[in-house]
Structure formats: structure tokens, C-alpha cells
Design goal:
The chain has a domain at 87-165: Ribosomal Protein S5, domain 2 (2-Layer Sandwich). The chain is elongated. The strands form 2 sheets. Strands 1-2-3-4 form a 4-stranded antiparallel sheet. It has a 4-stranded mixed sheet with strand order 5-6-8-7. The protein is an alpha+beta fold. It has helices at 2-20, 67-80, 121-130, 145-157, 162-169, 173-178, and strands at residues 23-36, 39-51, 56-64, 83-84, 97-101, 104-110, 117-118, 135-141. One of its GO terms (cellular component) is cytoplasm. This is Small ribosomal subunit protein uS5. Residues 1-21 are annotated as: Disordered.
């Protein structure tokens, strides 16, 4: 009986450990109103970015009557929309890439080791939670945090590694270098 209780405790601890590896950062909380028959109905919108700093990141949006509920919904939405980011050995991206989200455009460029994350706003948060440590990024167009975060995720989804390109072309990585 005592062994079963210990095993349950261990399983509970493992579940907590799995949860703690994911980080959540709230980018923006806005008070929004909806005009209804009786007047205005207040609610909150939270933009949350979820990542494990090991190449996985997601952007979520939640709306609720209170801030805590909106953040919880945003975290749940972010975990549903997690993407995989290919990182190089220097914790950068394999190549230059551009992404779009709404009216926002984001340009992401690989950087040398020791550069750090040179980006602003929501794009910086997305890149940091994805595990990128050396990168240059520029927001173009809109300054809306949600659209910029979505543009950064769009750019990161379009990244390809050398092995993926070689596999698509049906040749080896060495042949890819030669061409």
C-alpha cells in the first residue's frame, strides 16, 4: 500500500516537472467591449506566448470576463498551436526568412554566436521562448503585437534545414554542398 502511494507521488511530481519546462509570457492584456442591448459588456483579451526554449513555441489568444481566465485560455490556445523550430548548433536559425501575419511583416536573419536576440516586442518574446539565442529580427509594417507574433511564427514555420532540402531534392547533403 505504501509503495503505491510513493509511486503516485512520483507520477505527480513528473507531471509537475513536465509542466514547468514550458514557459508562458503574457505579451498584452486589453480590455475590450461589446455593445449589447443593455449597454456595454466588458471582457479581457490576453495574448500569450508559450515555449520550452528547446525549439517549440506557440502563440495563443484568450478572451474572458476576467484577466486570469483570459490568460488561462490564451495558454491553452498557445499549447494547441505549438510549432517546431529547427535550430543550428549556435542556437540561431538556418537561413534568412520573412513571415507575414495580418498587416505585419517580420524579417528574421541568422547571427553569429554571441550576438544575442536583437528583436523588439512580441517577436523577441517568440524567439526567446523558441530557444533562439543569436538572431537579428526586424518588424516591418504593423506594430500590432498579435500580428507581429503571428508573423514571427509564420517565418519560423517556413524554415528548412539542409537535410530537409536534400531529402526533397532526392540527393545527399554532400551533393547539395557541391551544387
Amino acid at each position: 500500500m505504501a509503495e503505491q502511494q510513493q509511486q503516485r507521488r512520483k507520477k505527480g511530481n513528473r507531471a509537475k516537472e513536465k509542466d514547468t519546462e514550458w514557459q508562458e509570457r503574457v505579451v498584452q492584456i486589453r480590455r475590450v467591449t461589446k455593445v449589447v442591448k443593455g449597454g456595454k459588456k466588458l471582457s479581457f483579451r490576453a495574448i500569450v506566448i508559450v515555449g520550452n526554449e528547446r525549439g517549440q513555441v506557440g502563440v495563443g489568444v484568450g478572451k474572458a470576463a476576467d484577466v486570469i481566465g483570459a490568460v488561462k485560455k490564451g495558454v491553452a490556445d498557445g499549447r494547441k498551436n505549438v510549432i517546431e523550430v529547427p535550430l543550428t548548433k549556435s542556437y540561431s536559425v538556418p537561413h534568412l526568412v520573412q513571415g507575414e501575419g495580418g498587416g505585419a511583416k517580420v524579417l528574421i536573419r541568422p547571427a553569429a554566436p554571441g550576438t544575442g536576440v536583437i528583436a523588439g516586442g512580441a517577436v523577441r518574446t517568440v524567439l526567446e521562448l523558441a530557444g533562439v539565442r543569436n538572431i537579428l529580427a526586424k518588424q516591418l509594417g504593423s506594430s500590432n503585437p498579435l500580428n507581429n507574433a503571428r508573423a514571427a511564427v509564420d517565418a519560423l514555420t517556413s524554415l528548412r534545414t539542409l537535410s530537409e532540402v536534400a531529402r526533397e531534392r532526392g540527393i545527399s547533403v554532400e551533393q547539395l554542398y557541391a551544387s
